[in-house]
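Example 3.2
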Amino acid sequence: MHIYIDADASPVKNIVIEEGVKRGLPVTLVTSISHYSTAEYPPGVQTVYVDTGAEAADYRIMQLVKKEDLLITQDYGLASLCLAKGCLVLHHTGFRYTVENIDQLLQSRYLSAMVRKSGKRTKGPKPFTNEDRDKFRESLKTVLDSEE
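Structure, written as tokens:
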């Protein structure tokens, strides 16, 4: 298993790196060149930089992931595509995307976009808390431990 992170806005990069390295799993952060960093990561962790285009990271992730890899993303569309490739996919809140729930999530995203397009406002995401981090870590450990 290889772990990929849709890393531009991911608040859980360090947790994923820590848990992945602990298990000897390779971790790849895919991020826009506009988020370039000189941060040094442990062996087994690499960063792939892509152009600043809207879907550049998604396209690169789709080229990289293989069946049974794990992807961390908050992008429902990317999650859907990776599920179709046989990947495991987690949201940074610890929610696991599945073939059973992805259609409902995509429909909800579409309806929210239509509401915004009509000029109305929708709520944004809640602030990410320490409880969210803990929940994500537990979900990640559960997924990683079940795949070993």
